[in-house]
């Protein structure tokens, strides 16, 4: 910045700080609430400083959950959510990479038709097709299973579309050079295209993981067995009790928020690496 | 090592667009042949057909004694250097060179040996562990050549490999390519639109126009005896001047134009064959006005307008003659500098 206007600077920073505070404050309250004793939360004003029951609350939530709300231990719910989110993410990436590869690099009949078919499904979110999908999953006996939780959410038009756009920017000569170098289609895909797509894969991984992690309606519909309860469902159940145990709910919330944050932190290194290193 | 034989090679794209309209050519074993022509003449398409990157609509293509029409590029035993290098950006230079060998199942020691030899030859040893993006244009070009070299193929195919380099580097790489090819004696087919590059590199030139061969010959053959007006205008810089015979007769031909071959109605004269001082041999004279003087160091280009004609004409003289723009110049041309053409067929009429 070349400008030197202290007041404008101060003002800008003030606005930014207010913005940050608005975002951070609820998170802070959640963390504080998860460390308080049950009765401290019921007294009207919520204390703004952490209490001394953190370890106790987290241990209880992690190991035993809230049985009165039909909510299993958080360890199990987090695991369920993690498996579902990972299955959806990996499945989505795998399928969309392959279908984008097919659409961009192979000339087959009705190629554009299939592309548009995929593109049109972009307009259909899970909620629209939820009843027929439920029927299909029920008929295939996939209710109460990880397969039922993840497979119907795997097909992804968004990722296919984004990979298609990316593949089209890879110069044609790259493919030709690989062909002259004796690489077949799948070898080209594995050796050249995948490494070049790392940045896009990392970005989509984060988006897809959070999408899978936050699924609520679908798991709620197809699982009745508490062994398959996901963390988002569990939190919802705990809060709909008559007297919700807020200290435990908040502990669960904090734990539920961690995996997406970790995924972002881990993948972020790949973005930065990818952005500075890829050159076409 | 092998010859490349093209017999009646045609390429038709959907919609009946003919990019290559029947090309017969034999590239002999160890020969360096340059395909040259303006953009859109089908030279790149032709090269890509040899490489196997474009299908062949009609005709036969042989590398050595093998008909390779239906073979994949990798099975044709050729290596190609691309205009934009097409290096794999995520691989080190070493892996860029080794990739083709790995795919062909060479063992590690052999790959190591060949990469080192190629790297040494191209002086890129110190870059082997770098990624292509850390290299300059010239260095990338060397890596792209190295990738072709390590394979020890039957033929090299070059698709305008120097056109992304700056002028100075282009000259330097041109010399190196030539020397390399002399040393390795690998059959090479080289595509360029730059006539100077074509003249200096090729053992033989193939001048292409609109999907057809206009002329095949050594650079000097083509320069000295262009077979058509197209070749005459394309090879040589500045381009050959084309003057109607009738006009020259009016200007004072001294009977020099009387014995031109039948059908000649236009003659081509190279800019350097127009002299400002009368030569001792019989000559014709033309008056002109100097429109623009262009000094290019060792030589000068004089853009003149001919008297009683609006035909733009260029004269090349060595050094810098004491002339001023607007001045009337008389130039002299001898009989042996005339290239006779027929303007209807576009062909040379003889001589």
UniProtKB/TrEMBL annotation, chain A:
One GO location term (cellular component): plasma membrane
Pfam families per UniProt: BPD_transp_1
Annotated localization: Cell inner membrane; Cell membrane
Membrane-spanning residues: 7-33, 82-106, 113-131, 143-163, 192-213, 246-267
Transmembrane keyword on record: yes
Coiled coil, from the record: none
InterPro entries to which the protein is assigned, alphabetical: MetI-like, MetI-like_sf
Bilayer topology annotation: Multi-pass membrane protein
Residue span, ABC transmembrane type-1 domain: 78-267
Keywords assigned: Cell inner membrane, Cell membrane, Membrane, Transmembrane, Transmembrane helix, Transport
PROSITE patterns the record matches: ABC_TM1
GO BP, one annotated term: transmembrane transport
PANTHER family xref list: ABC TRANSPORTER PERMEASE PROTEIN MG189-RELATED-RELATED (PTHR43744), SN-GLYCEROL-3-PHOSPHATE TRANSPORT SYSTEM PERMEASE PROTEIN UGPE (PTHR43744:SF8)
Family statement drawn from the similarity comment of this UniProt entry: Belongs to the binding-protein-dependent transport system permease family.
Protein name: sn-glycerol-3-phosphate transport system permease protein UgpE
Taxonomic path: Bacteria, Pseudomonadati, Pseudomonadota, Gammaproteobacteria, Oceanospirillales
TrEMBL record, chain B:
Keywords assigned by UniProt, alphabetized: ATP-binding, Cell inner membrane, Cell membrane, Membrane, Nucleotide-binding, Sugar transport, Translocase, Transport
Cellular component terms (Gene Ontology): ATP-binding cassette (ABC) transporter complex, substrate-binding subunit-containing
CDD domains linked to this entry: ABC_MalK_N
Chain segments annotated as coiled-coil in the UniProt record: none
Keyword Cell membrane: yes
One record GO biological process: glycerol-3-phosphate transmembrane transport
Pfam families noted in UniProt: ABC_tran, TOBE_2
Translocase is among the record's keywords: yes
One Gene Ontology molecular-function label: ATP binding
PROSITE patterns linked to this entry: ABC_TRANSPORTER_1, ABC_TRANSPORTER_2
ABC transporter domain: residues covered: 4-235
Protein known as: sn-glycerol-3-phosphate import ATP-binding protein UgpC
Taxonomic source organism: Halovibrio variabilis
């Amino acid at each position: 910045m070349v400008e030197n206007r202290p007041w404008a600077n101060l003002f800008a920073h003030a606005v930014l700080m207010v913005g940050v505070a608005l975002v951070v404050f609820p998170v802070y309250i959640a963390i504080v609430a998860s460390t308080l004793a049950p009765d401290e939360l019921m007294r009207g004003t919520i204390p703004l400083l952490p209490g001394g029951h953190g370890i106790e609350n987290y241990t209880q939530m992690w190991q035993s959950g809230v049985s009165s709300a039909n909510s299993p231990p958080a360890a199990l719910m987090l695991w369920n959510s993690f498996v579902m989110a990972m299955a959806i993410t990996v499945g989505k990436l795998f399928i969309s990479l392959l279908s984008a590869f097919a659409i961009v690099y192979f000339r087959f009949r009705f190629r554009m038709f299939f592309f548009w078919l995929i593109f049109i499904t972009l307009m259909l979110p899970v909620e629209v097709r939820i009843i027929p999908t439920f029927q299909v999953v029920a008929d295939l006996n996939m209710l109460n299973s990880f397969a039922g939780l993840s497979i119907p959410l795997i097909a992804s038009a968004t990722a296919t579309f984004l990979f298609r756009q990316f593949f089209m920017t890879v110069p044609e000569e790259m493919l030709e050079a690989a062909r002259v170098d004796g690489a077949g289609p799948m070898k080209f895909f594995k050796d050249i295209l995948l490494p070049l797509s790392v940045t896009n894969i990392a970005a989509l991984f984060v988006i897809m993981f959070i999408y899978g992690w936050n699924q609520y309606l679908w798991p709620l519909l197809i699982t009745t067995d508490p062994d398959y309860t996901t963390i988002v469902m569990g939190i919802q159940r705990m809060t709909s009790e008559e007297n919700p145990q807020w200290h435990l709910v908040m502990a669960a919330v904090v734990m539920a928020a961690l995996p997406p944050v970790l995924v972002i932190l881990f993948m972020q290194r790949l973005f930065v690496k990818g952005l500075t290193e890829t050159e076409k | 090592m092998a010859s490349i034989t093209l017999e009646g090679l045609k390429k038709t794209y959907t919609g009946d667009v003919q990019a290559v309209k029947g090309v017969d050519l034999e590239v002999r074993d160890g020969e360096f042949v340059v395909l040259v022509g303006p953009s859109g003449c089908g030279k790149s398409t032709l090269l890509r057909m040899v490489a196997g990157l474009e299908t062949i609509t009609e005709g036969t293509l042989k590398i050595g004694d093998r008909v390779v029409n239906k073979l994949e590029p990798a099975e044709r035993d050729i290596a190609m250097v691309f205009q934009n290098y097409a290096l794999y950006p995520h691989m080190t230079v070493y892996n860029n060179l080794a990739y083709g060998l790995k795919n062909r199942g060479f063992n590690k020691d052999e790959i190591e040996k060949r990469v080192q030899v190629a790297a040494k030859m191209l002086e890129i040893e110190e870059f082997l562990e770098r990624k292509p993006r850390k290299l300059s244009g010239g260095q990338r070009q060397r890596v792209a050549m190295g990738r072709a070299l390590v394979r020890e193929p039957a033929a090299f195919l070059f698709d305008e490999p120097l056109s992304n380099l700056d002028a100075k580097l282009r000259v330097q790489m041109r010399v190196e390519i030539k020397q390399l090819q002399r040393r390795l004696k690998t059959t090479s087919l080289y595509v360029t639109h730059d006539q100077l590059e074509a003249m200096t590199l090729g053992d033989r030139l193939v001048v292409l126009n609109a999907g057809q061969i206009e002329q095949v010959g050594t650079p000097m053959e083509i320069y000295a005896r262009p077979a058509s007006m197209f070749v005459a205008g394309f090879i040589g810089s500045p381009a050959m001047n084309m003057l109607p015979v009738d006009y020259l007769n009016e200007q004072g031909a001294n009977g020099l134009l009387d014995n031109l071959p039948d059908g000649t109605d236009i003659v081509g004269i190279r800019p350097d064959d127009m002299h400002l001082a009368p030569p001792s041999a019989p000559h014709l004279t033309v008056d002109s006005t100097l429109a623009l003087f262009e000094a290019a160091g060792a030589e000068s280009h004089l853009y003149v307008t001919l008297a009683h004609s609006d035909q733009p004409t260029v004269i090349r003289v060595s050094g810098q003659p004491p002339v001023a723009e607007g001045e009337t110049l008389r130039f002299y041309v001898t009989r042996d500098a005339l290239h006779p053409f027929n303007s209807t067929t576009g062909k040379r009429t003889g001589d």
